[in-house]
Amino acid sequence: MYSIIVVPPPTTEDAGTSTQFRLAPGERLVFGRSVPEGGLLIGHDGVSRRAGEITAQGTFWTVSNLSAHQTYVVENPEGAGEHIKVAPGRLDAPVPFEFSRIVLPAAGDLLPVEVWAPRHDYLRGEDGTDGEPTAPAFSVDRTKRYFAVLAALCEPRLRGEPHAPLPTVDQVVERLRPVWPAASRTSVQWNIDYLAVKLRLKPGPETAEPGPRLNGKKESLVSLALRFDLVREDDLVVLAPPSGRAPR
Amino acid sequence: MTEPYAVPVPRGYRVGAWEVREPIATGAFGSVYAARRVLPGPGAPDDTGRTAADAEHDGGRPDGTRRTNTGTGTRTDTGTGTGTGTGLTAADAPDPADRALRPAEDTPGGVAPGAGPPGEVALKFLPTGTGTPRQLSHLRDLVEREVELLRRLRRPRLIRMYETLTVDDPGRPRLDGATVLVLERAEGSLSALLSATPRPRSGPVLLAQICEGLHQLHHAGWVHGDLKPANVLLMKDGSVRLADFNMAAELEGTHAYTPAFSTPDYTPPELLWSEIGERGRRIRPSADVWAFGVLAHLVLTGSFPLPGGTPTARRDAAVAYSRGSHELRLSPELPSPWREIVRACLTRTHADRIGTDALLRRVADATGSAGGPARPSLRTRARPRLVAAAVTGLLALAALGHGVARWAGEGRDPVARPGGTASAVAAASYGAAELRTDRDVPPAYRLLIVETAHDCGHAEVSPALIAAMLKVESDFDPDLADPARDEYGIARWTPSVLRWWMNADGTPGETVPQPPFPPAESVPAMGRYLCWITPRLDAGLRGDRRVLVAVAYRTSYKKVNDAGGVPPKYRDYADRVAHRLQEYTPRGGT
Question: N or C, fewer C-beta in 10 Å, chain B?
Answer without folding.
Answer: C
